[in-house]
């Protein structure tokens, strides 16, 4: 399962969602993956913060959170993903629902590997051909 940025970011919220924390603890960790572009989004968010306590806490959290993923569970956008990316972007454009490039990359990575995406932004990934899981909502 692919973790989208908002799932990882939830753990540094002042009051993380109990539903997300419970969901995360119920999922086998070795089946979770982080796209490199999601890592980049998180690192960018940290870089944009002013130096201080909040930034320091976030840096420590991200470093510790990502350690288990660094051994083969950070997924790059590869050449083979480009075909899926083009299909997703063109399909959504024809539907009149363009998709942001970063989200299309995440969807392409997931689609090619047959992995669902855990995200709160299910609307952003709708009609991309991937299974979506919203950890903020109870399983149906």
Account of the 3D structure:
This protein is mainly alpha-helical and 140 residues long. It has a single domain (2-133), classed as 5'-nuclease (Rossmann fold, 3-Layer(aba) Sandwich), CATH 3.40.50. The chain is 52% helix and 7% strand. The protein has helices at residues 5-10, 18-26, 36-48, 53-66, 81-94, 101-113, 122-125, and strands spanning 2-3, 34-35, 74-75, 117-118, 132-133. A 3-stranded parallel sheet has the order 1-4-5. A two-stranded parallel sheet has the order 2-3. α3 runs antiparallel to α4 and α5 crosses α6 (101-113). The longest helix is centred in the middle third of the chain and has 14 residues, at 53-66. The protein is globular. It starts with a strand and ends in a 7-residue tail after the last strand. The model has no long low-confidence stretch (mean pLDDT 95).
Please summarize the sheet with the most strands: 3 strands, parallel
Approximate helicity band: 40-55%
Query: What is the subunit arrangement here?
Result: single chain
Tally of alpha and pi helices: 7
- In total, the number of strands is 5
Q: Please give the CATH class.
A: Alpha Beta
In spatial order, strands of the major sheet run 1-4-5
Name given to the CATH homologous superfamily: 5'-nuclease
CATH fold-level assignment? Rossmann fold
Give the overall form.
globular
Radius of gyration: 15 Å
- The helix-and-strand class reads mainly alpha
Please trace the helix and strand order, writing H or E for each element: EHHEHHEHHEHE
Q: Name the beta content range.
A: 5-15%
The mean pLDDT is 95
Spans of at least 5 consecutive residues whose pLDDT stays below 50 are none
